[in-house]
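Colleagues,

Please find the record for the three-part complex below.
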Amino acid sequence: MKRFALALLLAPLVAHAQYPDRPIKLIVPWAAGGDTDVIYRTFAPLMQKHVGGTIVVANVGGASGTKGAKEAKDSPPDGYTIFAVHDSIHSTYYTGVADVNYHDFEPLCLVSATPSIITASPKTPWSDMKALLADAKARPGQITVGATLGSTSHFFPAMVEKAAAIKFKYVSYEGTAPRMNALLGGHIELAESNLTQKGKADAGQLKFLAIASAARHPEVPAVPTLKELGISVEYAVNRGLIAPKGTPAAALGKLRSACGAAAKDPSFAEAMKKHGTIVNYLDERGYAAFLKDNDAQNKDVARDLGLLKR
Amino acid sequence: MYELLFAGLANVVQVKYLLPLALGTLVGVVGGALPGVTITMTIIVVLPFTFGLDPLQGLAAMTGVYVGGSAGGLVTAVLLGIPGTPSAIATTFDGHPMARNGEPGRALWIGIWASFFGGLLGGIFLIGATGPLARIALEFGPWEFFSLFVLALSMVAGLVEASLLKGLLSGMLGLIVTVMGVDPVLGRERLTLGIPFLAGGVEFLPVLIGVFAFAQIMTEVERMGGAAPLADAIDRAASLAVSHLKVIWEIVSRPLILLWVAFVGVLPAIGGSAASMMAYDQAKKFSRHPERFGTGTPEGIIASEASNNANVGGSLVTIMAFGIPGDAVTAVMLGALTIHGIQSGPLFISQNTQLAYGMFAAYLLAHPIMVLILALGSRWMLRVTTVPKAALFPVVLVLCVVGAYALNNTMTNVYVLLVFGLLGYAMVKTGFPLAPFILGVILGDQIELNLVRSIMTDANPWLFITRPISGGLLFASVASVAFALWQHRRQQAKLSASEGDADF
Amino acid sequence: MPGRDAWAGLAVLAASLVLFGFTFELKDNPLVPVGPGFYPRIVLGITALLAAAVVAAGFLTRRRRPAAAERGIRYGLVAATFAVFGVYVGALPYLGFRVATFAYIAATNAVLDPPRGARDWLRAAALALVATAVIYFAFERYLAVLLPRGRWIGF
């Protein structure tokens, strides 16, 4: 028994040479069960098929996603830590919540985009976006919007505010689930959501007023785009993978091609449909340019909001 | 509703869920039976093993531990006179005398079947309560949640046996833990005092594990090396065989007692130990033969065991619907459920029917599994109690470390575990109750968030009182403190100050 | 002579007042009508009041020391158990889970149940080895939970 146990303990010392020779840690900076977690728990098994090693999702939640970002940045750049990033890395940097910036990482690939939808409480009188806009003009600064302050759910309505020349009142509700419950109870009037809430909208528990994609979405053809309504805002929460700066090129290459192969897997697109998410693959070069643009855009929004701290 | 339950049952009987459920129940029964290892501890130890499982698998395992633990405590309570867990204390009053009077099998099986029926009654409540709760819940805005959490905190602080002042102060200390680190509204650092591990705020699970694990293990370590108090044990060779039909008849022929104690167990969701004591007291009051209590009457065993298992159902409702734990076990259970994707809230059950009803089904199924395990292994269970603590404790502490580490894959949580382990032990030694402290840690951010939310929604502070539900809840919390004050006065007049027991 | 209560209350009072002072350094944010110091000040203020009451009560009620309950308590053993655990937690990132846990379980077992002779040492080592191996493989191999690697020895 003892010798057996000893042999088991020492076994990993002897074998192997090639990357990856042990599990790769994928840091998801949000709690289990959230949108990001769900997407990467679907993605990781597909990706590990192509990378040839285990990928373990590690939820490092807290402080608007910046705790996980910090840990990913400080991890040894050996190819065994990768980071599931979304747009909040830009907004939290510019609003001064965290010092981690996308420059601290090497891009692997862009995975998905989830278009945002302006969603209203069933207890509000508005039948469509036009009614909301008229009411907002009549009552400036009084319509309550639930949002994670300084993050994507705050930036999106703020962009609408600016484009439509209206003014909202923000109430802090971190996380999609609490926001949706508050909408249901009528404790807030508006919030950002996405197609994951389609079931509730169909049941009349929520009202989808407008979607921020370029064209109407086939799942909800009756919901107009903001652009049609003359509000030039396009917004989606974009999720990708990055690795700490200094990760060896061989590991980066393998991770990048695995990421691409997994993103192109038809079963991934099928699974994402349920989560109102579009697979939006970009390779590392495309993704680097995307990050740069996105960063500049977030900086502008933060400045407009008076939140810019850098 | 019942279609959903059947769908849940059909789902959970799959091997992939049944296996973790059965294993969880087994570990729960064994952990519950081990004196010195509470259900709280068992849940803490099992939790990291479930991190990698899918949500329903994890929930099934944890539910099994909870149900199994609540029943397991009765084995040692009846046969050795030592409650395996605090919630089985009342079981020793009548269970052990009956066992010593030459009927160990009858005492044991009355307990087991009473747990079974009590648990099922609790389950009916669990399932029946969800619909009405969801309807009321929609009316709960930030004002109501703020007032509800304040009420929960003041009730738990008032329930403790030590001084009310210390109970309240413990609760405030818990709130202070959440004030330091990160402001929950904007996520900015605040009051970190330059300590790096405070920078991200403190996660509540490592705090919970540290406080409870060390408070308990160290109070055991203090007394190690003393004589084992097993002098009272019954003859280990005595037969445990019994006619199950007769025992079951003994229980169901007292439907009023059974219903009433199950009701007492479920209702306040104040935790298994308090519930079983209260139910025992009630059963004695209503009995035609109160003088028989304490000498080995079946009613006493039924009261204690039916109520502590019914309490599991009641507790699951309150943690799922409101995220408010009534005691240590439910606090840890809340942590466990959160990890497996339960976002406590009044609408959780109606919005996540598959998960919620899967868990209800697991809860119901855990009962027959528990009976089966005890039927096969109650004699073997006695041998488990002889595992040396010197071997058990380091392994348990290593599992605590794994649990804290694996939560976020950072050492930070392990340091938190150590720091709060020291604090937990210090609190026990200075007589500060742990339950209000933990509740403060759990509710702190929510209290602040809801306070700030209500101010952001409407600047009028009177809304806390003028909104009817919120006003009522605040009034109830003032009343509960006043009541506790009055009760402590009365008690103090009766008996001179005695050292309150640490509550695990 | 004030009892433990008064000392504990005094410590809490001092801590809450210091923290209360720090809340005034927190900056308000235009997005939130009440600053990040608003709620902490309420909590710390109430805590300070309660702590003061505990101190007062501690001085007012003369308490008899329950000598019987304190007798036979082995604080040395508790301190040793904590110390070994502290060393374990400190060493974990450097030695890695497998080495540190093996040493920790053996050491704690030896502290709680001092070995008399080689046989007992062997038993402690065997317990540590088996427990470490079982925990390690259960988590790392079957439950996909990664445990710390040693920074010094890469194992």
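Residues 117-211 of chain A form a domain with the D-Maltodextrin-Binding Protein; domain 2 fold (CATH 3.40.190.10).

Comments are welcome before we finalize the supplementary table.
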